[in-house]
Design goal:
The protein is mainly beta and 125 residues long. The chain contains no helices and 11 strands.
């Protein structure tokens, strides 16, 4: 059974930075994809970033150049470094994992098998 636990959210002023972490317990493999999604009240869950099968990184256009995803394989942890935060980045951020994801599904939340509980990020103007 795979379990994900996010941490690192909080309240920050616009222009500030936060680093989210997602610790994984359970089975992962060389084909594991890990991702970050976010959801604001009244909106659908949206893709933020992913490391596809451990090596290729993808970003939403809205965060490209500001957010960086990374992965510590021995510690089974994925990070999301968020810089130059904007009020529109305010959301509940979720970590997601899938062990057999295909590339065309990287940005599709319904195609991920495992999810964390989420960590709140609030950016004040």
């Amino acid at each position: 059974q795979v379990q994900l636990q996010e941490s690192g959210g909080g309240l920050v002023q616009a222009g500030g930075s936060l680093r989210l972490s997602c610790a994984v317990s359970g089975g992962t493999s060389s084909t594991t994809t890990m991702a970050w999604f976010r959801q604001s009240p009244g909106k659908e869950r949206e893709f933020v970033s992913a490391i596809f099968r451990g090596n290729r990184s993808y970003y939403a256009d809205s965060v490209k150049g500001r957010f960086t995803i990374s992965r510590d394989n021995p510690k089974k942890t994925v990070f999301l470094q968020m810089n130059s935060l904007k009020p529109e980045d305010t959301a509940l951020y979720y970590c997601a994992l899938d062990n057999r994801l295909i590339l065309s599904s990287v940005r599709v939340p319904a195609d991920y098998d495992y999810w964390g509980q989420g960590t709140q990020v609030t950016v004040s103007s």
